[in-house]
Amino acid sequence: SPGTSTPVTSLFSSTPTVTSEQIEHLHRRFKQLSRDQLTIRKENFDSIPDLEFNPIRGKIVHAFFDKRNLRQESDGLADEINFEDFLTIMSYFRPIEMNMDEEQLDRFRKEKLKFLFHMYDSDHDGKITLQEYRNVVEELLSGNPHLEKESARSIADGAMMEAASICVGQMGPDQVYEGITFEDFLKMWQGIDIETKMHVRFLNMETIAHCY
Amino acid sequence: MFLLLPFDSLVVNLLGISITVLFTLLLVFIIVPAIFGVSFGIRKVYMKTLLKIFQWATLRIERGAKEKNHPLYKPYVNGIIAKEPTSLEEEIKEIRRSGSGKALDTPEFELSDIFYFCRKGIETIMDDEVTKRFSAEELESWNLLSRTNYNFQYISLRLTVLWGLGVLIRYCFLLPLRIALAFTGISLLVTGTTVVGYLPNGRCKEFLSKHVHLMCYRICVRALTAIITYHDRENRPRNGGICVANHTSPIDVIILASDGYYAMVGQIHGGLMGVIQRAMVKACPHVWFERSEVKDRHLVAKRLTEHVQDKSKLPILIFPEGTCINNTSVMMFKKGSFEIGATVYPVAIKYDPQFGDAFWNSSKYGMVTYLLRMMTSWAIVCSVWYLPPMSRQPEEDAVQFANRVKSAIARQGGLVDLLWDGGLKREKVKDTFKEEQQKLYSKMIVGNHEDRSRS
What's the complex ipTM? Predict the structure, then answer.
């Protein structure tokens, strides 16, 4: 649910795995990407060569500007983001803490899944339709230029049907499956341990000082 | 008849005298302390002096770069994120395995596949391998090794002179000194252990064997100019136990064995290594396996168990990752050593990258090249933490125990605790390889899809 506008640094200060030193590193990275400006635009991500090879590059960059991810009240796309927004997106990739209780873990998980959901749901209507699913599969398989569009399509269709069967069960012949809502999305991921897969770990720089 | 001119004889005399002086110094300041296990503290003074010089050098670079308005490269070659060096296939398999529980040989597209690319993308945005430039704001130390610094062009005359002096010192003074020491250490080890091997078994033999081993390892430590700080030495491994440590380089063995008396475990090699191994086992019961035996896990486990159950035998030294890791993370520990049922003494080793990167990338450098690189660095500075002993609890299995030990080591050494198996590829993914990865992914999904639709 939207609403609580937690300042970003508190998101991090409650997690000891991201220290102020690491936030400094991220800040430096931000300044490098923004070429010392206060905000970043989509074009700034073009300066990362390694990102070129990622098939869902477009979706990832888009995610940074998606107002739903930026925890803003309005909807749509932002034109530019500042460092606080940058950190907000990064916070979706925090690793889990040892001392999290059930409620925190659940919220943590929902946040990560919401981020993924927004990546699939490109028209922001709260549902992943067949076409949107097809788009994702096509992008993921876009690394192979010899791939027929039909193959990507049939894969997406098959996967979508399976998703439907999980979410809705047996459908009648005249029932139309509108699309995967967020609740259905959560259902699909039940029992699957995503928290350990969707995180980025920082190196601990401090122990280097202990060497002498 | 060839008459030596007085000048020539003077040169010869001088040469003779300087070599004698050098060797006397060597003996007095390095070898004798190694034999008795004392230290003059020369290496610590050396290290502090070096640090001051590095700081000065870095200031010069930054000042120079600021004047010319160039951005600087950051010397932390490892970056700020622990990148899991797994391949696409392995990671997707792992994601799916932990997920739907479907059979792995039906690789259809799954919703979770997007994780891999999503995470890789975010990692790249956070910290790019190719462009690691940051504007110079704080002091980052350059260690006068051009292999670690790419800003080499942006320096002043004074710095170049200093760097040149550094090269001279390292290659013409330190390197021969170190090679001489290493040679002395290894030959003493081989002859010493062979001689001790002829003695009848008993307390005398044990005592001598221990001291021969320790002495030679200490000489080798000095041969690398390793400056080691040991923490919590009261937790050092005891007889009948297993000492496990994270693995960064072959030097780890020397570092640990110069502070304790261990039974080594390993495969018998050919060449010089084999000679050393065969000599060592004469003096005390190390556990060497033939190449064929290494594959037989039951045999290995059996021999190790036998060794451990004999309380008179030394603690075994094992590196459960199985391969050298880059000292920023700890990979999965192979569970073999943890099934044996002995007390485990974990040890964390952390190298300071400032003085030289100790990681042995065996796919990039051979052993000899690696040793030469180590011997032409300034020093190897590291910290060793002896952690309190751990035993397997009744309700945990070998894998859980192994993970528990691994986390303890990772936490102490400030290393990231990773789940993946260290036997996977370590090298940086080349561009063409990345494209291949993408094609591979599509092949994985589509190829099988087509097979099925055909059948």
Answer: 0.80
